[in-house]
Every structure is written in C-alpha cells, then in structure tokens.
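To: structure subgroup
Subject: Chain for Friday's discussion

All,

I'm putting the inputs and outputs inline so they're searchable in the archive.
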Amino acid sequence: MANDDIHQAAAALRSARRVVVLTGAGISAESGVPTFRGPEGLWRKYRAEDLATPEAFARDPILVWEWYDWRRGIIAKVGPNPGHLVLARWEARFPAFTLITQNVDGLHALAGSQRLLELHGNIWKTRCPEEGRIVENRNVPLSPIPPRCAFCGGLLRPHIVWFGEGLDPGVLGEAYAASAQAEVMLVVGTSALVHPAASLPLAAAESGATIIEINPDPTPLTPYADFPLRGKAGDILPRLDAALD
C-alpha cells in the first residue's frame, strides 16, 4: 500500500466530523477468531447453518448451547488487534462517530468501543425470549447448560441473530441513519456480500459520503470506493491513524 494512498484517504478523513465504520469478519480473523461457517467450521458433524437457527434451538437447546460454549472458549483466548484499538480511539477524535459491526465476538467492546452497533448480536450476551431481557455472561465454560433466566426461570438463548431471523429493527435503523449522514465511511474487513449490512456503504455513497475500503482483496463494494486500500486492517488502520496527525 503506497503512502500516497494512505495520506489522501487521511486527508478526507481529517476534515470530517461525521464518520461511520462498518467492520466484518476480516478484522476478527486477524485476531485469530476462526470462521465458524463452511467446511472448515464443522463442529462434531454439524455446520453452523445446522445449529444457528430457531428450529435447532427448539429441537435441542443443549446441543446448540454446547456449540456456542465451544465457540466462546475459542474466542476467549484472543484479544483485540491494532485495528480494533485504533477504532476505539477514534471515538474521541471525531465529533460524531459510529462503529457498526457484523461480528459477534465482542472484540470491539473489549478494545474500548462504546458507540457501537452490533448488527448480528453478541456471543457474550444471553437473551430471555419471554421477557426480552439481555444479560452479559462471560463465563467460560458456561454452566449450567442450557442457562436459565435468573428472573423468570425460562430458557435463555444466545443474543445472536440466527439464520432465518431478521435484524433488530432499532439497531438496523440506527445503522442506516448514521450511514446516510456520514461524511466519510470506512468499510473494513467485510466481503460486502451479506445484506442488509452490505447496503449500508451504498446508502452512505448515495448521500455523498467518501468511501474508504480496507480489505486484502477487491469486493463488490470496490467500484464504489473512493479509496480502496489493499491490506489488513491491523496494518492499514494504524498507518491511517498516524497520517491524521
């Protein structure tokens, strides 16, 4: 990645007040979070698509929770990388800053991000389907399995958007509103294939925002990016941050 590209992107970012960032699996992969979908994500004999559904949970909540407990154990061993840390620091730099993530691993919050919209939920939170109460639980291993609500005794589920479920309309609405008002939007480590998240940068571009894409490879978003920066988030974001000063 040429320094000129970094400095030009930094110049656009430096003059902005309203900044939005969308992150995907790539930034987490750099911390060591594996992909839990596809053949490489097989657990026992199951795929993520077989377990992360309301039907699977209704059929066998113990099995689904055992899978999530296994995932939590893996994620607990990794931490935020320099890319996560830069984004957390940027909250204090820009007057209006919103971080939108497709990731459920909680690494952004662990890095210190607070202006955070988690589109697909958070693996470290449980939700009571009866009361809607969301509670953080970072116990590894999880006990008991399956966990139950401390208030009503009902069966808790992971606070995750499963296959076949819609995103929380409140969270999604906030994400669209922030994207439409952005002056600069960074799209970091996402394939730009999963909707509705993939449509957020397009909404920003249609509203006149400058789009900065950070990804090792081109994506369907690349033709819309003003600054396609090729590389890993953990490398590019610190360089971009340094160029702001």
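Points worth raising on Friday:
The radius of gyration is 19 Å.
The beta strands are 18-23, 96-101, 116-118, 121-127, 134-136, 157-160, 184-188, 210-215, 227-230.

D.
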